[in-house]
Amino acid sequence: MSREEINQKLAILPELPGCYIMRNKENDIIYIGKAKNLRSRVKSYFHSKHEGKTALLVADIDHFEFIVTKTNKESLLLEISLIKQYQPKYNIKLKQGSMYPYLKITNERDPQLVITSTVEEDGGIYFGPYPNVYAATETQQFIQKVYPLRKCSKNQKRACLYYHMGQCIGCCDHEVSVEEYEQQISRITRFLNGEVKEIKQNLVEKMGKAASEMNFEQAADYRDQIRYIEATVEKQTIMSRDYTNRDVFAFHMDKGWISIQVFLLRQSTVIKREAALFPSYGKPEEELVSFIVQFYQEQNHILPKEILVPDGVDIELLSETLDNTKVHVPKRGNKKSILDLAITNSELALNEKFMMIERNKNKTVGAIQELSEALGSTYLETIEAFDHSNIQGTNPVSAMVVYKDGQPDRKSYRKYKIKTVEGSNEFATTQEVIRRRYTRLLREQRPLPDLILMDGGKVQIRAAKEVLEDELGIYIPVAGMVKNNKHKTASLMFGDENELVELDPRSQAFHLVQRIQDEVHRFAITFHRQVRGKNSFSSQLDQIEGVGPKTRTKVLRHFKTMTKIREASVEDIQKLGIPEKVASSIKDVFPKQEKRTSPPWPMKK
Asked: GIY-YIG domain: which residues (predicted)?
């Protein structure tokens, strides 16, 4: 990223707490930090003089990302989590530190309050994790004074010293009932869940009294206890007290673009954040459903115990598609807080995108000029790009996007249902689409594009050229958009020998090709989902004897999904005015759902 691009991104950073992630030219994470004010802190790396190790870090930074949190404490907890996940080379101290602690009430006849760095399924009650080991230790000791549990080994022959000091419940002296333990544990739980107002007020009064009596050492001790409580018991959003593995998906949509944020929570901690930005042509809730399904099927992510999504998302369809994984729309509490945080980050990411586009809109023509020079062509005013989508050869479709002067011309986009090709055949599919597109342009005497981009390599390039040059007798330059093993834009394939044309990843031409490739890929997948959604349900109904267009429409409008038909009885179907024999046939076609053997959403081939 150039200095100018960095300055542009710095200018739109929010003045909010959060974490910043520094990356090098290879896109590796090299440093993770936190800040009360992201804009001020990140600016200091690029606008101040540095020496020693900091200077080496700054010299290695190529670009950065950020995640907004609600409080400075949350940014600290998230920073620790991300550092342990990615192990950046410049985070020497935190990287080598031990795991931050939990407070635990043990599951035994005479329970204890202990500090531990691991969470196990042992029936214990866990609180945390906490960012400050010293504060957690002091708070543990404070609780032992106010709400003592067992502090001795139980092997005492007489009452232990801690019992005489009021820091042990006294099971070494006498038998303590289960009811008394439960009451004490309830008090500790309320305290660690944030009900500390009464105790803090009591400490404030004691601190004031000690100070008025000139007992400053005792007053300082009370002051420290108050600080420890605030550091340990303060309510947290990033660190949930529920250790269920869950993923959180949120979106924000504006001006035809959708921004999606994914928070992966494991052992109560956000271990990873993923983000996506792309043009959207349908309802954002439907786009999110498609994204989530592809997230798990195409990227090999493991399904968690629970998925959190915003209101309006079809949770029944999503759960059914993802092997009945629990999908939940939180309305209140910690789950709602973490979802709100993801939504906030989605909005900030999209606003950043718009501001960067606004600042760089004058560079679209420059990108075309760079691309034209790289391909040895005159100014490439109009570019048309094609991509195909199918699932194991079923419902094949293609899509075309058009860019003029480096900007998308959405009115000129086209969708194609493949008519002459059966199965997955990229060569034949490409030839059909190219033939249909440019035969029509010639027949209507409309202008031809200056460049055709295929989302593929030699096979699609050769197929397109055979139709254009051998069949139609026209010459339009054709290039292939080549991706690397991470499915990211890498280079172009162009020329008579299909040579690779390497584009500088920092250049405007590279980013333009990347935008075009992402755009046509998303457009093709969106169209495929629409086609398959219409065909999969209705096609099964069409195969039933006695089901005509009117009956099919009745069933589709009333039940809407295959799941609801499976749950319905023959009598429920008959109520729509359908004969019993036809209703029974419909039920026979939609038996109880079996486990899917193929993904229900389109994947790129």
From this structure: 15-92
pLDDT in tens, 85-98: 788 888 754 444 44
pTM of the predicted structure, to 2 decimals: 0.39
Residue 246 token pair: 């869950």
CA pair distance 46, 6, nearest whole angstrom:
9
Q: Using one digit for the tens of pLDDT, what is the confidence trace for 535-569?
A: 555 566 766 777 777 887 788 778 767 678 778 88
DSSP 10-51: HHT--SS-EEEEEE-TT--EEEEEEESSHHHHHHHHHHS---
The answer for residues whose C-beta is within 8 angstroms of residue 137's C-beta and 6 or more apart is 115
| Torsions phi, psi for 177 (to 5 deg) | -70, 155
Helices H / strands E in the chain, number of each: 21, 19
d(CA 193, CA 188): 8
Pairing mode, strands 382-391 and 394-404: antiparallel
Residue labelled with tokens 């407070």: 103
Task: For residue 468, give the DSSP letter.
Answer: I
Please write the tens of the pLDDT for every residue from 352-391. Answer: 888 777 666 656 788 898 899 999 998 999 999 999 887 6
Element (H, E) at 481: strand 478-483
Query: d(Cα 356, Cα 174) in Å, to the nearest integer?
Result: 71
Tokens of 566: 């499976």
Distance CA 431, CA 416 (A): 12
For residue 307, the cross-strand partners are 247, 327
Query: What six digits make up the tokens of 304?
Result: 């968690």
Q: How many other β-carbons are positioned within 10 Å of the β-carbon of residue 284?
A: 19
Structure tokens at 339: 């979802």
Alpha carbon distance 311, 326 (integer Å): 15
Structural domains for the chain = 3-95 (3.40.1440.10), 102-233 (no CATH), 246-358 (3.30.420.10), 380-529 (3.30.420.340)
User: The tokens of 59 are what?
Assistant: 């010299």
* Torsional sign, CA 517, 520, 523, 527: negative
The angle formed by the CA atoms of residues 559, 562 and 567, to the nearest 5 degrees, is 75
